[in-house]
Amino acid sequence: MTDKNIQIPQQTFLDLYILCDWLNRYGELDHERLQRSLTTLEQKVEAMARRTLFTQYKTAPQNSQEREALRQQYLQQVGIHPNWQTAREAHNP
């Protein structure tokens, strides 16, 4: 995995900083702050996974089975219902 920079909300960064500092000093955690930070970070990880899948789909060779499989994976991951995909694709050949 390559080391890339990512952006997170400022409040999440501050929460993480405070959690680490608090744990370092006192060995205890603020569970409310931890849960809030984890929720935001999970959303970020999911967004990164979607972006990676989208990039793989867009860079796959044109008209390949791999590209179509990646496209279907991406659409499924972002929650586009298969019936909607089929109806839309029938109107836009």
Write down the domain tally. Answer: 1
* Beta-strand content: under 5%
Distance between the termini: 37 Å
Q: Total strand count, please?
A: 0
- Cα-based radius of gyration, to the nearest Å: 19 Å
- The geometry reads as elongated
Mean pLDDT: 80
Q: By helix and strand content, what is the structural category?
A: mainly alpha
SSE string, helix = H, strand = E?
HHHH
Q: Helical region count? A: 4
The helix content, as a percent range, equals over 70%
**Which regions have little confidence, pLDDT < 50, spanning 5+ residues?**
none
Specify the biggest β-sheet: none
Brief descriptors of the model:
mainly alpha, single chain, 4 helices, 74% helix, 93 residues
What does this structure look like?
- The protein is an all-alpha fold and 93 residues long.
- It contains 4 helices and no strands.
- The chain has helices at 10-26, 31-59, 65-77, 82-91.
- It starts with 9 loop residues before the first helix and ends with a helix.
- The mean pLDDT is 80.
